[in-house]
Amino acid sequence: MKSMTGYGWAEEQGAEVSLSVEIKGCNSRFLDIAVNVPPFLSSLEIPVREYLAGRCRRGRVEVSLRYRELNAPVSVRLNKVAARAYWKAALETAETLGINETPRLTAILGMEGVLETERDRNPQRALERIMPLLERAAADFERDRVREGEHTRGDILSHIGRLERSRDSVAARGAELEKLLRENVRNRFAELLGEGVDENRVYAETAGLLIKHTIAEELSRLEAHLKEFRAEAERNPSPGKKLDFLCQEINREINTIGSKAFMIEVSGEVITMKEALENIREQLRNVE
């Protein structure tokens, strides 16, 4: 079992390049991958996204790539139009102010747009450097998700244990339920007929009420759902969606038991089961 939340980080500092990869994960119903890369590396977004899509099934995953080449070749181009315009403006300004001075070349070169620079960047070369770093960050991210997921699984299974104990407690009251129904029926007949109560009539009425109030089928289905829940949590590395569905089925059986049972002890166990199930649902919001 894995959590959808996690954090991974890897970086490399060398003489030629400085780069880092950061991965953050949080809850989301579906898989949502956001990749943040420098504009000149926009072509790397697709391979990075595909790589992470192969490792994650649910959750929002945010990836940030920082890449800086320290000694990349630089191309410098002179914008002749801009240079002439600045030179002419400088001469006109000197003439207007009555200053006999020739503009300095360094001043013209420092003006915006006169020199245009462009680094010789190779996206394929950048990808070859980034992918090993991405793998390291993803492994770190995976370890964090697995560690959190194991903690979550332990907590979820402890609540499943509460559900199982409450279910067994309710099932153990079957004979007590039948006895209580029979006594209620006999008391009602005694109020109407006095001491001349027909036991056969009492048993017949009790049988009818048992059909209405019996929860044997619900308890059986609840037991099956709880066993399947445990098995799914143990064998499936990404059980979130299946466990969400099982929670719906478990909730349906608990509600039916609560509506049928009239014993206060059973009602108390139903409340306990609802509380445990709500805790499970809360935890499942973070399970992949």
Which short descriptors sum up this protein?
288 residues, 3 domains, rod-shaped, Ribosomal Protein S5, domain 2, 62% helix, alpha+beta, four-stranded mixed sheet, 6 strands
Précis, in short:
By secondary structure, this protein is α+β, with helices and mostly antiparallel strands. It has 9 helices and 6 strands, in the order E-E-E-H-E-E-H-H-E-H-H-H-H-H-H. The strands form 2 sheets. It has a 4-stranded mixed beta sheet with strand order 1-2-4-3. Strands 5-6 form a two-stranded antiparallel sheet.
What can you tell me about this protein's structure?
The protein has nine helices and six strands, in the order βββαββααβαααααα. Helix 1 links the parallel strand 3 (31-36) and strand 4. The mean pLDDT is 85. Helix content is 62%, strand content 16%. Helix 4 packs antiparallel against helix 7 (216-235), helix 4 (123-171) runs antiparallel to helix 9 and helix 8 runs antiparallel to helix 9. The chain folds into three domains: 6-71 and 122-145, Ribosomal Protein S5, domain 2 (2-Layer Sandwich), CATH 3.30.230; 74-119, no CATH class; 147-284. The strands form two sheets. Strands 1-2-4-3 form a four-stranded mixed sheet. The protein is of the alpha+beta class. It starts with 5 loop residues before the first strand and ends with a helix.
Mean pLDDT, to the nearest integer, reads 85
Indicate the low-confidence ranges by residue numbers: none
Number of structural units classed as domains: 3
Judged by helices, strands and strand pairing, the structural class is: alpha+beta
Shape by Cα distribution: rod-shaped
Q: What's the helix-strand series?
A: EEEHEEHHEHHHHHH
- Separation of the first and last Cα atoms: 7 Å
Helical stretch tally: 9
Q: Strand percentage, roughly?
A: 15-25%
Largest sheet: 4 strands, mixed
Spatial ordering of strands, largest sheet: 1-2-4-3
**Strand tally:** 6
What value does the Rg take, in angstroms? 37 Å
Q: State the helical fraction.
A: 55-70%
